[in-house]
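Re: that backbone. Tokens:
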């Protein structure tokens, strides 16, 4: 490592990297920020992650691992706020980060901001601290609007993203697809964009023998499992999965007296999406075959992935799709929409099936095909694991550090 990169400030204003995952706004971005920081820390780089303090009980500083701290910055009222509710408190957040930096006499070589809200804070800090700013968007307002018709993202967000594209020193995108959107929808110069996919923790996500996996999560050995994991955001299109499951004949077959269960992990209590999807399952008359488990700790997920016959990601868009990568690392094939990051992760017919988004029939067909063919599932699972190993963090982190060092 070059001696000039000693310390990095990561900004994750609207969501904390140690919050419970699978809630309304806690998913891939939290995991990426947490894992990125941990890997940088392991390389000897000091990392402070600044996030908005949501609870008066949170300690100011929480150690995440060697060289890594999460700093809870007060700004606005306690509690969970939407991005637009947080927006007016960004100046207070910025001022308190600067105050913290002065009080603790920390020094940073670079800022890496996540999501547009953090980017706006990054622009201010960059001029005060006179250091470069790297931006990762995770999702983009104009892309969300394009893939979820009827959705209107606030102009404040779109304008902020346009401003960031012009003013940050580097954009770290996850896929070439994202780089295209940045260029075509936001007028970004490709020269400013570096494409590096996220990594996966292959020590956590690895195949567990099916029997032990089922024992661990308490499901009978003969019960077969079809799995969805993720936030229950409308963009995930879980309703398409429910209707596909309801027309998949093989999903209704009794295998040794055991019905195939569709298991949905994710969704916090009180989330209106959870109510909406449960009602749909009732209307489709499949409630008896669908289990909504709510949020699960990531540590337990490898057992679910390993126990599952297949994992389904029916999203109308995914900027990357960590769930796909985690499932593949556990040796479980995927059926996923052919969109965004999922197109590069899934080799159609080899590591799973890519299906057109927002359509019930092709999804049902692919689920059926895989459920009926154990040999195919097994072969695809092995190929999936092999493909996932290319994204192991030790392969990804040197590329990110190299990108930082160009600045
Ligand atoms: N996740 C989790 N528990 C849950 C639901 C999700 O740990 O109950 C994690 C999952 O392991 C994955 C992330 O949340 O790392 C979801 O990331 P993905 O990129 O698939 O979706 P996003 O949230 O970015 O839309």
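Recovered sequence:
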């Amino acid at each position: 490592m070059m001696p000039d990169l000693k310390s990095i400030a990561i900004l994750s204003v609207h969501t904390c990297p140690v919050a419970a995952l699978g809630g309304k706004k806690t998913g891939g971005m939290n995991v990426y920020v947490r894992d990125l920081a941990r890997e940088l820390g392991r390389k000897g780089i000091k990392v402070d992650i600044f996030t908005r303090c949501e609870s008066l009980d949170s300690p100011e500083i929480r150690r995440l691992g060697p060289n890594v701290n999460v700093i809870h910055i007060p700004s606005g009222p306690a509690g969970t706020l939407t991005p637009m509710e947080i927006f007016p408190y960004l100046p207070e957040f910025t001022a308190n980060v600067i105050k913290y930096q002065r009080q603790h006499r920390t020094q940073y070589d670079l800022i890496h901001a996540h999501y547009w809200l953090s980017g706006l804070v990054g622009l201010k800090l960059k001029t005060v601290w006179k250091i470069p700013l790297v931006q990762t968007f995770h999702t983009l307002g104009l892309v969300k609007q394009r893939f979820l018709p009827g959705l209107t993202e606030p102009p404040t967000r779109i304008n902020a993203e346009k401003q960031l594209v012009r003013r940050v020193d580097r954009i770290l995108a996850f896929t070439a697809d994202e780089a295209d959107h940045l260029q075509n929808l936001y007028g970004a110069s490709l020269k400013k964009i570096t494409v590096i996919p996220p990594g996966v923790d292959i020590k956590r996500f690895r195949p567990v023998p099916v029997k032990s996996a089922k024992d661990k999560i308490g499901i009978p050995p003969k019960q077969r499992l079809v799995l969805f994991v993720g936030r229950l955001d409308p963009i995930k299109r879980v309703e398409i999965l429910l209707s596909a499951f309801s027309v998949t004949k093989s999903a209704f077959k009794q295998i040794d007296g055991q019905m195939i269960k569709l298991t949905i992990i994710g969704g916090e209590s009180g989330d209106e999406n959870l109510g909406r999807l449960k009602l749909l399952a009732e209307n489709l008359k499949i409630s008896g075959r669908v289990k909504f488990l709510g949020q699960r700790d990531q540590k337990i997920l490898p057992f679910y992935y390993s126990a599952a016959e297949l994992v389904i990601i029916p999203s109308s868009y995914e900027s990357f799709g960590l769930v796909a990568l985690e499932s593949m690392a556990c040796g479980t094939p995927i059926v996923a929409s052919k969109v965004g990051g999922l197109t590069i992760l899934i080799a159609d017919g080899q590591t799973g099936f890519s299906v057109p988004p927002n359509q019930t029939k092709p999804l049902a067909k692919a689920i059926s095909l895989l459920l009926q063919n154990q040999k195919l599932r097994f072969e695809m699972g092995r190929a999936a694991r092999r493909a996932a190993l290319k994204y192991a963090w030790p392969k990804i982190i040197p590329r990110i550090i190299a990108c930082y060092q160009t600045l």
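The CA atoms of residues 41 and 359 lie 43 Å apart. The mean pLDDT is 94.
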